[in-house]
Write a structure and sequence with these properties.
Number of helices of chain A: 5
Number of domains of chain A: 2
Oligomer: homodimer
Distance between the termini of chain A: 20 Å
Radius of gyration of chain A: 16 Å
Number of strands of chain A: 6
Structural class of chain A: alpha/beta
Strand content of chain A: 15-25%
Shape of chain A: globular
Largest sheet of chain A: 6 strands, parallel
Chain lengths: ~180, ~180
Amino acid sequence: MEEKIRLAIDMDEVLADTIDKFIEVYRRDHNTEILLEEMSGKEFHELLPDTLSHSWRDYVNAPGFFRDLKVMPGAQQVVADLQKKYDVYIVSAAMEFRNSLIDKLDWMNEHFPNIGWKNIVFCGNKIVDVQIMIDDRIRNFAGFHGRKIIFSSPHNHYITEYERANNWLEVADMLL
Amino acid sequence: MEEKIRLAIDMDEVLADTIDKFIEVYRRDHNTEILLEEMSGKEFHELLPDTLSHSWRDYVNAPGFFRDLKVMPGAQQVVADLQKKYDVYIVSAAMEFRNSLIDKLDWMNEHFPNIGWKNIVFCGNKIVDVQIMIDDRIRNFAGFHGRKIIFSSPHNHYITEYERANNWLEVADMLL
């Protein structure tokens, strides 16, 4: 059997809508409304008032934060289609947040049950031996010599040096 | 700065003495004594009486199993020395056992605090982009084209095709 090309797909802001969760918890707990439109080129926490700007780490460190994130539109169908053609790995820099590990694995098993445990990688630096990488963070492309696809997220809005997918339909057009 | 060579080190039976824990829990809970001398070329669970041979999965699936493993003799000092010369990554196929993730991360932080979160990888298939790999399981060498060092564990006793380290002092001799 011919070996399939290996494709690494990021979780936060690519498969999972982490920003939506941030917006929700700050609206709920702090009556603070952050609009997607304000976010271009910025990290979410840069938009928080000074009094709140350090609390975002408390949220991501809390058990449960990553467990109920919404799936990005179209991701399930396109990933299923990609699995037919590619050896798909889900690669998340989860190691920074101890309590995210189980939440992220459970989330994967709920929403992407066809991605088996052998194809999930939780790491820090993304030192994966793959041919294609889809990620919203260009720091994860450091030292990677394969095809790099930046997945649009407000914080990367002004980055122009990479092949870009604005959504999962565009990933499908590029890779299927 | 010149880039260091990347070295991937396995956890179970390389940094952490998983077999010692197995021996202990079967002695404690089942009055069953498994001797290291009987284990050559065999997996631990193959030595269990039929009535117990399936319970080993219950143990590794339970929270806490991987939290209090003993550190393999010499591992801490040699890993510290290796970090001066190599870009050391700890790579464990932890993803099979959901509840091992946090235990393994906490264990690393306790016993190897100088290995930061960026250099820890929990995965299934070990698709890491490194130049050297130290592992007790040759299945983890599949598709890996770098230098492969098999770390002695009873189950791999009769495997002869790889460069072998019997303990951490031998790793030091080979790589330092």
